[in-house]
Amino acid sequence: MSADVTAALAAVTGALPAAEERPGQRQMAQAVASSIDSGRHLVVQAGTGTGKTLGYLVPAIVAGKRVVVATATKALQDQLAAKDLPFLEAHLGIPFDWAVLKGRSNYVCMQRVREIQGADSGQLELEEFAATTKVEINRLVAWSGTTDTGDQAGLDWAPSDRAWQAVSVGSDECPGATRCPMGSVCFAEAARTRASVADVVVVNMHLYGLHVGSGGMLLPEHDVVVMDEAHQLEDIMSDTVGVQVAGGRFTTLTAALKRILDDPQLVGGVAEASLVVRDVLVPFLGQRLPRPFPAPVQEMLVDVRGRVQRALTALGAIDSDVEDAKARKMRGQQLATRLQDSIDLALDNREGFVAFVSGGPDYPRLEIAPLEVGGVLNNGIWSQRTAILASATIPASLGARVGLPPGGFDEIDVGSPFDYEHHAMLYCAVHMPDPRSPAVWTGGAPGADRAHHGSGGPNARAVHQLEGDGRRRRGRAAHGRRAHPHSTRPAEDRVGEGVQRRRARVPVRNRRLLPRRRHPRPHAEPGGDRSHPVPPP
Would you give the distance in Å from CA 373 to the centre of its chain? Predict the structure, then answer.
């Protein structure tokens, strides 16, 4: 197959404008072909400019295998869907079908649209929205009648999160096509149908993680999985195969309950649970929690579980023959049941999992994650299909950390055709102190700044230089190029704290402490908070 792949790759790359020879791409394609043929997993580092997407797509298609490509970023997913796959379709000379599959929250829900359009309930439901949001919702409702895919990416304008949430649902809420009155015209189900017959399916890595966590229920059967941007695989899989309890999930449940229950006390109790979770978790922010949990956390979980149970009992007592009412009831039951399952898993002192509190002061999250994802991934991926792990930067120990079987995978580095020597720039701030010196983080004497600020921070002169002179120099130096600032996480925190102290009226945001978007998560399933059960270890 190697000769066929080489010829196919040459034909494809020859059709590119300003085509050039890329030995690393050819080496990668041959290695991928050999991996698919032998069934051995492959970890490949393909540096900038290699053209790694064609390096794995061409051999997979030539082999006639069904392949799922999981990407870590939306940008790469869009590149595959808008550029690479259409290009291969036109120039490879081998017929194949491809599809992009996203989480449910990325598609408009026709049942929600029908409820909003209802003469009575729809108008009542829209009353809670601001005037501008109502206008957006009405535009989305009108668009739902003209779109072929229902995919939010197909919009030529950007609706607010609030408006999109009004016409979409996550998997936590969806009762499934067979139980939904509008299941026959469901856009999410139509996307799944297209994916089920495609030769190449492009998904988000979060969605693939949820596929693993669900026991293989979300994606169609496939022979090969390509994990592109694989350096992020471990973190993303740890996120998606774990569970979390966060205030946002109670807020989402409250919104669903308001649409079907007329019990302000019960619904208010669920809404209040969001604040209870926040207030209890904030003192533990950034900490790993012992098991069993500290008393305040344990009592909080028992309390909010009881509130969810009361909501489930009230929903179960509803008896209606109206289809829309039954759909609202089922969505509320789905959300409440998933949330209750997550709380139960948090309370279960399971071996091999660690509990910690992440997020920020306004949005703390109790997360239960596996200590290592290797066992889960081995059971859910490596033992079932051939895997290609590709990235421009591969950590040396990645294979072992993600559980690839020892001796069952190959590793290669195909280099990069990029001329770093002539197209890179090193900026050395000679006016700054040595970063290894305590003077960087103190006022000049070791411990001086720590005495006032607890954990240390950059001295005033360093902060001033970072804000002013250094920024101007970097700005001039990076003109016409891309700048790549970086630091360790502790350094990032200390610099942020120091700048904030000097510029109290200017907001300084640490990217790691920003709240995660609850809905929708980019191409993930469900839209935000994780609620599926943790797979058995």
Answer: 16
Give every strand in the sheet of 243-246, ordered side by side.
243-246, 364-370, 353-359, 288-289
The strand pairing partners of 98, in sequence order, are 200
Count the neighbouring beta carbons within 10 Å of the beta carbon of residue 321.
Answer: 6
pLDDT value, residue 213: 82
> 23-27, 150-154, 300-304, 322-326: which range is least confident on average?
322-326
Report the chain's terminal Cα–Cα distance, integer Å.
38
Tens of pLDDT along 255-307? 889 989 989 999 999 999 999 999 999 999 999 999 889 999 999 999 999 99
Find where tokens 């796959």 sit.
85
* DSSP code per residue over 309-332: HHHHHHHHT-----HHHHHHHHHH
pTM score over 0.90: no
C-alpha–C-alpha distance, residues 372 and 374, integer Å: 6
Exposure string (b/e) for 509-529, b if CB count within 10 Å is 16 or more?
eeeebeebebbbbbbbbbbbb
Query: Do residues 70 and 77 make contact, with C-beta atoms less than 8 angstroms apart?
Result: no
Question: CB within 8 A of 190, min separation 6: which ones?
Answer: 149, 150
Q: What are 176-201's pLDDT values in tens digits?
A: 888 888 889 999 999 999 999 999 99
Name which residue leads in pLDDT, 411 or 492: 411
Task: Confirm if 14 and 381 have CB atoms less than 8 A apart.
Answer: no
Longest dimension (CA), the chain: 76
Asked if residue 70 lies in contact with residue 208, where contact means CB atoms within 8 angstroms, the answer is yes
DSSP conformational letter for 357: E
Please report, for residues 20, 44, 416, 484, the alpha-carbon distance to residue 50 in angstroms, rounded to integers and kept in the order given: 11, 11, 6, 20
